[in-house]
Predict the 3D structure of the following.
Amino acid sequence: MIGPLQIVLLSIVAAFTVVCGQNWFQTANQPVFTGMMAGIIMGDPVTGLFIGGSMQLTVLGIGTFGGSSHIDANSGAILATAFSVALGMDPSQALAAIAVPVAAILTTADVLGRFCNAFFQQRIDSLIEKDDYAGIERNFLYGAIPWALSRILPVALALIFGQGVVQSLMEVLNGPLKWLGTGLGVAGAVMPAVGFAILLRYLPTKQHFNYLILGFVVTVFFSYLFTNVKKIGTAVASTVDGFSGAFINLPMLGIALVGLFLAVNHYKSITGTTSIKAVPAQTTADTEEDDDDEL
């Protein structure tokens, strides 16, 4: 079960992430961060990273413009991680059954946070006319209160009163409706691919499909190579005494660096930063004209 201290800490994380999202630094306002923090609080950072990372990939291609509201993937990752660890729920199942629905429902909380924050904005407008700079600063900081409450209240209430509901839901999904629970688990595992598909929908893949093909081939080739090398190393280590060679899987950082190289190379090619413009040689007439001007 989720303890009182864990409920308090998880609610604070939910408030902290949404307040960070209103500033120019938004590192903490990401599902992978909130999932990791929720996992640490619940004592299982691996599950938190899995759910947070999967939620991050799910919303990878979702963006908002201006002041429009968006789904609350952070709170969804927190609740899914908490219930998954506390109740022993399958992480993929929790992702589909809890994280995504909660993220969609709490869009209303985002709207309410913006609506309540308008009160402090109007006060700031009146204080500007009075040149009350101290009051402007205070009301600016007061604006963080409705943002924090818009996440603290729903997350805390869900953690306090939702454990029994989620427990009953998990028993049904693993009992009479096991086929539905299995389907939700598969859907949760596929959701990151949906996020990639949405992202590719907005990227200029038709103009640069060659990079897409190259990235796919490089990933498959390296994965196949590293996997087989690791199998060979494991077999050798099991038969040869004193063999201390370490064989690891392909790190995703390596694939990311290959992609970074291709992106930088393409950027330089289209901006012409790699080309050196030749300086036209001055003709005799230009030289004489310059000399005349100096005289």
